[in-house]
Amino acid sequence: MKKFLAWAALAIGLFVLQTSLLPLIYFKGAGPDILLLVTASYAFFKGSRLGSFMGFLLGLFEDLATGGYFGINIFIKMIIGFACGIFSTRVVRDRFFLPVVGSMVCTAGSFLAFEIIIFCIDYTFYPVEHVQYRLLPMLCYNVIFAWPVHTLVNMVEERFHEKKQ
Question: Where are the domains of the chain?
Answer without folding.
Answer: 31-159
